[in-house]
Design brief:
This protein is of the alpha/beta class. Helices cover 40% and strands 24% of the residues. Helix 6 (151-162) packs across helix 8. The longest helix has 16 residues, at 104-119. It starts with a strand and ends with a strand.
């Protein structure tokens, strides 16, 4: 998943980025609303984590700019704990609200919950050929044998599952797996796709190379 974090507290922002990156997510970090607008102009995000009080404006006003548009889901992060603040923020279009200071495990859980709600009801375990994929535990089970996917493999498989039958270019996959400022070449995608192919081979699931275009996951 690709997240946009809008937070001017550098120490907190770095900690959030580090925690989410450990789970294999790509996180871009903006410290102002102007930077956030720049990021949103050039990239697509699965989720935005938005602070309220920022150097160049109020995050709630920024949130209101999305009315009538199709923004990523938004979790507001703020030190304000009054009920009226929470209600106002949710009415402006936020999907959830988390009061600082917060526990990172709660942040991760709320991110998963918001993404599930936006994606609609989904089975806890997803059949992939002869295997079963459990996104919550990051496991792939075939013939009673359970494989625990590494973080990047897990996120890559999630991207393919969300886009079954579609051709995804290397640049699209790179965009979903790594933050914008990461110095990662498209060769890294070949490595991760190769690892994932080995994981899925016995289950009869193929990740095809479509020459000149990218990759496509096909099920038997």
């Amino acid at each position: 998943m690709r997240y946009l974090l809008v937070e001017d507290n550098i120490e907190l922002g770095d900690a959030v980025v580090a925690r989410l990156s450990m789970d294999g997510h790509a996180v871009d970090h903006a410290t102002t609303l102007a930077e956030a607008r720049d990021w949103l102009a050039v990239a697509e995000y699965d989720l935005m984590l938005l602070d309220v009080m920022l150097p160049d404006g109020d995050g709630r006003q920024f949130l209101s700019e999305f009315r009538g548009k199709n923004p990523p889901p938004v979790i507001v992060l703020t030190a304000r704990s009054q009920v009226s603040d929470r209600v106002d923020t949710l009415d402006l279009g936020a999907d959830d609200y988390l009061t600082k200071p917060f526990d990172f495990s709660e942040l991760e859980a709320r991110c998963r919950a918001v993404l599930r709600r936006r994606g609609g009801p989904a089975p806890a375990v997803i059949p992939l050929g002869a295997a079963l994929f459990d996104p919550s535990s990051g496991t792939l089970t075939h013939d009673g044998q359970e494989q625990v996917l590494r973080n990047r493999e897990l996120r890559l498989l999630e991207v393919f599952v969300r886009n079954k039958g579609q051709i995804l270019s290397k640049s699209q996959l790179l965009d979903r797996l790594f933050p914008q400022d990461a110095e990662i070449s498209e060769n890294a995608i070949e490595v991760y796709v190769g690892r994932l192919r080995k994981r899925l081979a016995e289950a009869g699931v193929q990740i095809e190379t479509v020459r000149g275009m990218g990759y496509r996951m096909s099920l038997p």
